[in-house]
Batch of 3 targets.
Target 1
Amino acid sequence: MSDADRSEGESLLKRYSTRALVAGVTIASVVALLLAGLLFPDSLAGTLSDALTSRNTLASALRLSVPIAFAALGGIFAEKSGVINIGLEGLLIISAFSAIYVADITGGVWIGFAGGVVASTLLAALFAVVTIGFRADQIIAGLAVWLIALGLAPFASQVIYSSPNTPTVATTGSITVPVLADLPFFGALFSASPSVYMLFAAVFGSWYVFERTAFGRWIRASGENPKALDTAGVSVTHVRYAAVLISGVLAGMGGAALSLDLGQFTGNGPTMVNGKGFIAIVAYLFGNYNPVGAFLSTMLFAGLDALQTVLQLQGIGIPRQLIRITPFVVVILVLALVGRTRLPEAAGEHYDTEE
Amino acid sequence: MSAADRARKALSRLVDASATERILISTAALVLSVLIGAVLVLVAGRMTTCTAGEAVYYFGTGFCYDPVVVFDRLFLGALGDPLSGSWSPNGQFAVTLRETTLLIFTGLSVALAFRTGIFNIGTQGQMVVGALATALGVLWASSLVSGVVGTVVLIPFGLLVGGVFGGLYGAVPGLLKAYADANEVITTIMLNFIATGVALYLVSGVFKDPESAANQTVPLPEFAQFPALLFGGRQDFSLVALAFGLLAIGGLYYVLEHTAFGYDIRTSGVQPEAAEYGGVDAKRTVVASLTLSGALGGIAGAMYVMMVLGTFQTGIPSYGFDGITVSILAGNNPLGVGVAALLFGVLKSGTTVVQFATDVPPQLVGVLRGLIILFVAMPEFFRLLGRGLPGAGSKPEAVATDGGTVTESGGETDE
């Protein structure tokens, strides 16, 4: 028993130290880069640190992190309750398309946003019925959700608009806080799309739910020790249904924000979502199921993505196609370093109430 | 005699017992998906616009798409209209068999990993890597030989190159899973994106065919491609390739059921702890299984290059993802993969016929693919449905037919 405790403690230590290591190396290299840039403004380091400290980079990092972070928050809710939702990508796709479609027929951007959320929630409800009600394998059902959305969104777009890409609609625009928006670098925080502020609220809200409310404790218990929750008189099934539906709502907000930010849905190949749902899964694993942690690791991925866009504009000699795959390579590196994160005890398992 | 043999017998009894049920579930999933697809076609037909003359009427309502026509084209069209009397091997049936051949390999790739308890979502990427390697390798080698000798030498060589590179790419998630505990579902999906990106970079740059506007490699000479026997050359189908596919089915069946390696794989998939206790090296099995699985995906890529395109072009169709459906539909059984690949080959080839005959978008088959996976994943649903039907347990005749397509099934009697 003490052996088990010790090995648990050791792996805990190892886990945290790898995370700390990754975070430390990231911060150290950023600082080194900034220093080098300060000393040699004309070198590559100078260009890089210019890009890093530009408020455009922060602005686009925030914009790029919106869909990923929303999906990651959704993933946390589902997985903490014991349902691994690998279909986040599909939820993003279906909401991105539905948001544009509803916005197009009603003319209202925010009605479109709501439409996207509803579509994603419906698909999540289907996923919940299949996995919780009919005990389907969660991974396979999640894949099915992804593949259904991957087919359905371009199919619908082709039927309605005769092209996998929709026409453009009005975008959500941006909210600017006077004075604060003029700050260097951090000004980007105060002149952003409404979805960025909604994301901040959602990150805080999720954190609050998990740390401060009974519902948050139920979700944790449903994933860690469903029997105890059952004994305490709370229905595991209901908690799991609620958690999966919340994941649908959150992912739907991410998808709707993604397409309405551009005012268009593009459905060629992997669609405009292009793996963001899967990056979200890695983001919350790396963030150790903590909403704030998930947001910060999303910013790491999105920051890299933003940086590559800035570098492309400045004509740094790395081919565009290769720069584009950096987030995916980083995801693999992160997974290789962090390894298995401790899943909730009962994640992936079906729970039968004993009556 | 040994414990291993006894365990194998017990396991095969278990598999046999559920085989009937599994076939029933797969069939029901397919039928249900097609029905939902029909509803989807009707709904889509309400949402699009057409003239009154083009519309069909059901229940007093007009629809722009007719699901009966859609599914008639989808299934009969894919078989080259066998009922019309003008059937020829050069028609759509050849396209169906071509799709089937490719799906056999991607399906086997996914199935092998599944049997080890691993989700290889990366068959698509492994196929891209194998296809690119084959296109470049065979192009280089084709300057050394020519004529009939060239065909005899280059085709096995191309398959080997595709298999080796696909296998190496499959080994990456295997190593990551075995030694870094990285979840293979995520790593294989990421590796798909990376394979596509790197291939696009290479083919739009260094290896681009200077005479083509598309992002593709220099086309292979005619003798470096699969010969079209019996079937017309226009459909890009070769019986030789299909024979390779059937051989692969038999081979994988034999490896899984009659070798020590196959035993390791199956026990790792069913009972990982017991397998480890029984002396199976779990890490080695994971890496070996994903490498072999990647090799099968790579061979699918080689087939695509040497049979269908004759060059590598970016934007390889999603045979890898379809392989997931094929494998799940087949209950991850190599023999079942043959039947499921044919079924899904019909769906894929029929989609192009549907596109010609109607305005229904070809993405329909993508939706069907997802629905089939969803339904096969929820056997509980069909058990619930079946509880009301007393005749649900009757033996379907499909059980025996998949054995007939296998060339090496003679080996299984020597127990």
Target 2
Amino acid sequence: MNNLSLILAGVFACLSLSWGGVVLATQVQLAGLAPAAAEDGGPLKPALAPGLAVIGKDVYVSQGCQACHTQQVRPAGQGADIARGWGKRPSVARDYILQDRVLLGDRRLGPDLADVGTRLADDAKLHLHLLAPDAAVAGSTKSGFAHLYQQVPAARARNAVSLPEGHALAPAPGMAWVPTDRAVALVAYLRSLRADHASPEAPLPE
Amino acid sequence: MSLAPSAPAAERPSSLEETQPGRVAPIDRSLAPAVLTLAAFGALWAVVAALAGLAASLQSHLPGFLAGEPLLFGRLLAVEHTLLTFGWLTNAGLAFALWAAHRLGKVELRVSWAPVLGALGWNLALAFGACALLAGRGTGLAWLELPRAFGPFLTACFLVVALWVASAFSRRHTGHVFVSQWYILAAILVFPVVHLVSQAMVLWFPAAGVVQAVVAAWHAQHLAVLFLGSLALASLHLVIPKALGAPLRSYYLAPVGFWTFLAFGTWSGTASLVGSPVPAWAQSVGVVGAALLFVPVLIVSLSLLPTLVAGGPSGKGSAPLRFATLGALAFLLWGAASAVLPFRSVSALLRFTDVEVAHAALGLQGFVGFSLLAGLYYLLPRVTGRAWPSPALVAAHHACALLGLLGLVVTLAGHGWLQSSGASPEAGLAWNAAASLFRFLLLLGAVAFLLNLLLLLVARPARRDLAQASAR
Amino acid sequence: MNDRNPERGPRRDGRPPRRDDAPGSLPPEAFSDHKLTELHSRLARDKEEPSEGFSSTPVFLVFLLCALGFWAGVYLTRNAGGFSAKTFDLNAPKVAATAGPKAFVADPKKGMELFNAQCASCHQPTGLGLAGVFPPLAGSDWIDGDNERTLKIVLAGIAGEMKVKGNTYNGNMPAIGAALKDAQVAHIVSYVNQAWGNAQPAVTDAQVAEVRKKIGARGQYSPKEILAEHPLK
């Protein structure tokens, strides 16, 4: 233990072994994955996300959504994800192959979002969740993202987000909340998060 | 601690340093610019990280607190994590590594200002990085939060400092290589290799799909355990015998502890992916690695803790020993939790909950943070040639850090348990509020340390004490 | 905490007191670096000496490591899902293996690569085409399960005015497939049939060979001609 190069070589050997055994091995195993049809003649999944959703993913990251939300449905028996209705089947590696950055997440202060596009298939609902979470879910502790919305005169407002009567964020008289471009893109991204298709590795339950 | 105006002469035993002050003082003097720069930036980042953590914690139970951009919850957490790990812990670890490598090798730092350049570069980049994170330019990946352009520059700055550590080792004058030196060498090799490889595979040339998650998990575990953990163990192994004046128990087991720490730690990365969409074998490898990691934890603890216990209660009075005791205890607890949490039956309940946050806090702020604090409390007076100006601040730091971390870990774990039972988020608000209280204590502790360090830096620059001692 | 604690005086064994944070004066080191390395060097050499009563520790440790190694092996063999890339959930029911060899299986990966190389410059990787210039394939009414029509177009090309999804295009598509192997054409057409939300059955290389034989050497189709042979559904 008195030799500099011997210690460094030993340390380096440990690192390379685990890199080869874990990182390289999974890369070799998973590199060949491509969109696939679950049964003959079915559509190839996953599909490329629409352009607005790609922009929305940047908004998702920059707003720090991944700090509270994961994007992975764990199998039954390893958490109650499926029982809670966060997805119909567990997530598998193939679901992520077209994503340029994989945001599995490591903390859940809010629900999982891997399948949020099927759960909340409605722009208005998603906007309400973002603008005033407590109006969407009573007692929600989610932080609001009112800075992604702006007030415009009600007459000019398209896609206005309507709040319940007497809500703290209720717009000034004659005004209405409308989403900014960032909110529109973010909602498009959330809508694109869907895991409602069967995968060769994870069939949908009958 | 009460002030002792001057120690009785009888309490001044002769030691090598006093009979031959010239042998150690020049080494310390040559290290002063670099070590003090690193330590000062580290203490500063510790305060900023604690502030960010407190703000995020407050947001979790006070809706509307600092709402809106740029202080979003997710961004604050990214800032806290980056500044805690790359700011506070890495700076402190490098300061300790520089000092220990030169002291143990009995060589002076040849070019005193050279590592200062690396330290300045590292910390300026971090300052810009924190601003980038607040501006929403983060990557959203734990331990790789900073935009990818920062990675190569940070690694280069790290190497500017770390190469002097390696140089001190190769120029050393001593025959026996002490255990701390092994851990330091491992740490300075692990960081650049792992950080560059992972940056490349995740941010520059992204691997397809979940391989990214595997790389990120591998990276996080290496930086937390094999980089920061090694530096912390180096500090414990050096500070405990030096401050106690007693050799380490079971020292002959140290090589076994060192190599099993590396060999098992390096395989434990995927333990954080149990239940995730990565192949089951990769998850199981991580579980095995994390469980086996308890072997070196036990070996090292069986060496450190009995040494501390045999040192007796009088060790309580010294700041390095008090923090080293906390660090060694946190190491054992953290190791036990690391071995248990990844198992599938446990992970099914506790994964993604605040129990994992508590575990990380115990490891980073407890084990690594306290151990490196022990090192800094020991080395900074020697490098400046002055004692800590305010023992009251030392005591305050110790009390705040101990109470704060203990409370934080307990409340986070309690909240995590509540989360695993499927309770509504509202039910956790009281736990979050308690966590904020303890985070405030941690902030106070960090401020006390920074203040004391600044006082130490601006105190009269004479090296009078040593001069007096040698004249006597 | 009291610095004048009687316990903190000089120790009987002559070791210096520990007063590292004492104010005003810097105490000497309890253990000089020299003494530290010397002593530990001796400790490292003297490992056989059972003086501290720790002699049984290495034996115990060897047994512990062996036992843990055994456990690790057992755990891995039982929990690794056969080291398969397709096992994510150890409790999942086994997916029945498909029996019998198949002559040709359309490979979406090859199909995507070939499509991107041969077709995407006009039809775009997204299959959406370019508005007014190149007709879309994604959701196209021409992809309706009549594979023979698609194969004829790919093998012989098509030129002239045509309506796709209600828009008129005046295109000129060369005989891309003429230079490709049967299997390559089959991969491409299967991919087009199943990508971007299209959901039509795959094509085999045998079908491609059949159509190629049927049309022989010929020029591009006109939309009228091909619709006469294969009307849109």
Target 3
Amino acid sequence: MSSPMLSMSWPEGNRMREITFSKAVNEALAEEMRQDETVIILGEDVAEAGTPFKILSGLVEEFGTDRVIDTPISEPGFTGIGVGAAMTGMRPVVDLMFGDFIFLIMDQLCNQAAKAHYMSGGKLNVPMVLRTNMGATRRSAAQHSQSLHAIVAHIPGLKIAMPSSAYEAKGLLKTAIRDDNPVVIFEDKLMYQDSAEVPEEEYAIPFGQACVKREGTDITLIGTSSMVQVCEKAADMLQEKGINAEVIDPRTIVPLDEKTLVESAKKTGRVIVVDEGHQSFGVTSEIASRINEKAFYYLDAPTTRIGAMDVPIPFSPVLEDITVPTPEGVFEQAMKLVSGELIDAA
Amino acid sequence: MSKTKKAELNAEDALRMFRQMLRIRTFENNANQLYLSAKMPGLTHMYSGEEAVAVGICDALLPTDKITSTHRGHGHCVAKGAEFKAMFCELLGREEGYCRGKGGSMHIADQSNGNLGANAIVGGSLGIATGAALTAKLKKTSDVAVCFFGDGATAQGLMYEVMNMAALWNLPVIYACENNGYSEYTKTEEIAAGSITARAEAFGIEAHQVDGQDVIAVNALAKSLVERARNGEGPFFVELMTYRYHGHHVGDINREYYRAKTEEEDWKKNRDPIIRLRSWLVENGHATEEALDEINAAVTEDAENAVAYALNAPYPAASEVDMHVFTDVEHVLA
């Protein structure tokens, strides 16, 4: 595997411009649809409406209603149709308006899409992308705010991508569309209007390659999706205290670039894993476990986790804001780890 | 079905369907024996009694047309062109099975003949068949997709979601509801309110009810609907009135608490699809009793050879366990 830092650098002479996360997703879809006529979009309000988040605006005008297909509000139905279309030669990008609706499609995603290749002994392929979202603090309450990636990451046969900026959003989506396996992409809906530098030229980001966002020596902060930004802010705060934090974005949790994470743990000896899914039985637990198993003798402190509180997401802003990981929370935890305090993180 | 329709069927087609129905019955008898003699792992669901449904419909399809199948799927698999050896190997978990032993009875898929797989979730393949029809429409392949499912699956919400979209988008899909009178261990009349065909009609889908024990009637209807679906007139819905001779699965032996033996005997004696076609072939001078017995003997021998072969075929190597999780990773746990 190439150095993880290489995946952050773009080709010499590549022109950069700032675009929003939303625009990056739109560009990825448009580029792939121009190159491959089997790529279609299926979902609720994806055509003229361009989704409630306006991410797909303009696509139906370019590609027509045969390829940008508005469906009824029938999540299991259109996901199942996506699975069948994928098995027979299309590359559907199924748009699930809110990540919370993933509970509606569990059979089609986890019993059908995820298992078809294995159950058929490698004969059937399901090159389908399920694009959906995650993320709290939008005041949308318990059924429109969840981060449910851990639930599908548990199922063998699904690849799970979690872009942390516009750059990752575009590059990972292009890889997902070209992948012959079912891929679920979780986009943090609070990042849709965030801008980042994205190359003018075409690029794709390979799955299973973590990105070291910032190199450090004292502690490793592993963050997924928008938690990368939380970790970077915490790293800034730690820097002021003279603590040098390394920040890593796994980019895909399936496949997981365990090597980069474990090497960083061995180097710094302290790790905090930050993810917006509920803390219990989640992504933070999985990554922390692997680090404990593979880097135990290099660790100076227990690997700890910061996830969303184990409560349904409340509506009231004063309550909702305390359920999700924050830079301050990561900073405080890091200070404890560095100073050798015992952690009560359960 | 009227006599004029029956007369349209030529001897060659009728004999081919006779042989295919016999192959299904013989396959199932052997599978049942494998279960009863504890040579087959797990359990399986017998298609015996329902042969005219799979054969009447699949004989109207081309190899490029797609089907999706059910937990009671051996009949669909045979009817769509599968071979005994690879099927028995799959039932016995052997490497030479259609799915390298990884799917088993409830997940046999044979994509080379357009079978996108049996499915162990009741109604689970309704979306897949509809999606295959969407591909056919978008790629203009003129393929037709047939979704086989039972009366039990009409209680699943997915059916109504995909029928709605198939109707809105005029997809070339035929929903083939095999109504065998029982939803597992419960009479269909206890789980299905109103009319099953009316449910499809509510979406503007043309729906038919046909005697599922009459392969000639099933085939005549299927040929007409398949052709119309190819011409963009789909979707269609067919309720096929049929019967399963065995229990819900091979282990469901003492079943008098939900189904009388006299009822089973009546269907077997008076409505058996193979006996009925046999009589028709002989009465119309298309075949002699001796010729039909010869077909039977050949099918029996073929099945016995395939069973013997499968019983001695190698199991997959242990190293196969983490293969085929992803298309691009040879061993996912390596």
